[in-house]
Write a structure and sequence with these properties.
Elements (H helix, E strand, L loop, with lengths): L2 H19 L2 H9 L2 H16 L20 E2 L1 H4 L23 H14 L3 E5 L5 H7 L7 E6 L22 E5 L14 E6 L5 H14 E9 L6 H10 L6 E3 L5 E5 L2 H13 L4
Parallel strand pairs: 1-7, 2-3, 2-5, 3-4, 5-6
Antiparallel strand pairs: 6-8, 7-8
Helix pairs in contact: 1-3, 2-3, 7-8, 7-9
C-alpha cells in the first residue's frame, strides 16, 4: 500500500472516530479552551471507547474484543526464571504509555536468564528500557538500540543512560528502523524488543526485521499489546500463523524461538511476509 494512501486511510479513520465521540462537552471545550484542548478531549475519548490507553480496566470494558492472543504467564514461557522476585530496576516510574515497572522486571529477568551477547531494541526514547536490560547482560554483552536522529536543539534520546556507568554496554544507533541496514546484525540477538512503531503496517515491518535478527534459543517481545491499536491488530493477525502469546498482566506480546527450526520458520516469514 502506498504511504500516501495508508496515511489518508488513517486520517479518515481518526476523523470518523472523532465525529463518533463528539458531544456538547467538545463544543464547550472548543469555545472555552480552544481547538487544541478540544482535539485532545476527542482523542482521549476515542481511545477510551476503543479500550486503548484505559490501562487498568481493559478487561472490564464490555465492548472490548481486541484480545485474541492466548494468554500465558511469564513463568510458563520461561521455565526456571524466578518471576516472583523483582530485579533491581533503574528509574522505576514510567512516562505515559512507557514500559511499566513490572514489565521491565519481566524483560530484565529474561535477559538475566538467557545471558545473550546481544539485545536489540527498536525505539530508544529516553533510554530507560535500554539501561535496565543492559544491567543484566553478561560482561561481554551489548545492547543495540535505535531511534530517529534527535532534532536540535532538543535531544532526549537515551538521556537516562548518558551519565550512567552502563553506557559502555549500550550502542546507540540513529535512523529509520525500516530503512536501516540490519545485515550486520542478522541472526545475532538473543532478545529483540519491538517498541518503536505503533501503526499496523509499521509494526508489521518492524516484526519482519526482528525475525531476521533473533537467534535460535532467543525471544522477541512487543510492547503495547492492547494499548496501541495497530500493534494489537498486527499481533492478532500474526497469531494465526505463529505461536505469539500475551504475557498475563502486561502489555507484552512474546514469541519464543526455541531452536533452529523455529528460527528458520521466522526467516521464511521475514522474506515473504507470511508463511504461505
Amino acid at each position: 500500500m502506498p504511504e500516501e494512501t495508508h496515511s489518508l486511510k488513517l486520517r479518515l479513520r481518526q476523523l470518523g472516530r472523532a465525529i463518533a465521540v463528539m458531544n456538547l462537552a467538545t463544543v464547550w471545550l472548543l469555545v472555552s479552551k480552544g481547538p487544541k484542548v478540544a482535539v485532545e478531549y476527542l482523542t482521549q475519548s476515542a481511545r477510551y471507547f476503543h479500550g486503548f490507553g484505559f490501562i487498568w480496566r481493559w478487561h472490564e470494558l464490555p465492548w472490548r474484543h481486541h484480545y485474541r492472543l492466548p494468554k500465558a504467564s511469564a513463568a510458563s514461557l520461561f521455565p526456571g526464571v524466578d518471576f516472583d522476585h523483582s530485579p533491581e530496576v533503574w528509574f522505576p516510574f514510567p512516562r505515559n504509555l512507557g514500559v511499566y515497572t513490572h514489565e521491565l522486571g519481566v524483560l530484565a529477568n529474561v535477559v538475566n536468564r538467557l545471558q545473550p551477547k546481544r539485545v536489540i531494541e527498536f525505539g530508544t526514547a529516553e533510554g530507560r528500557t535500554a539501561l535496565n536490560l543492559a544491567a543484566y547482560l553478561p560482561a561481554e554483552g551489548e545492547l543495540v538500540t535505535i531511534d530517529m536522529p534527535p532534532k536540535p536543539p532538543t535531544n532526549y534520546v537515551g538521556f537516562f543512560y548518558w551519565n550512567h556507568p552502563l553506557k559502555s554496554k549500550i550502542k546507540q544507533l540513529h535512523g529509520d528502523i525500516l530503512r536501516f541496514d540490519w545485515s550486520t546484525y542478522r541472526n545475532s540477538a538473543g532478545v529483540v524488543f519491538c517498541d518503536a512503531l505503533d501503526d499496523y503496517e509499521g509494526s508489521r515491518e518492524e516484526t519482519r526485521i526482528a525475525f531476521g535478527l533473533v537467534q535460535a534459543g532467543g525471544a522477541i517481545f512487543w510492547h503495547d499489546y492492547g494499548s496501541a491499536e495497530g500493534v494489537t491488530r498486527m499481533l492478532n493477525d500474526l497469531s494465526r500463523e505463529l505461536p505469539v502469546c500475551h504475557i498475563e498482566g502486561t502489555t507484552l506480546g512474546c514469541l519464543a524461538v526455541p531452536d533452529e527450526h523455529a528460527r528458520e520458520r521466522l526467516c521464511r516469514w521475514s522474506a515473504n511476509g507470511s508463511e504461505r
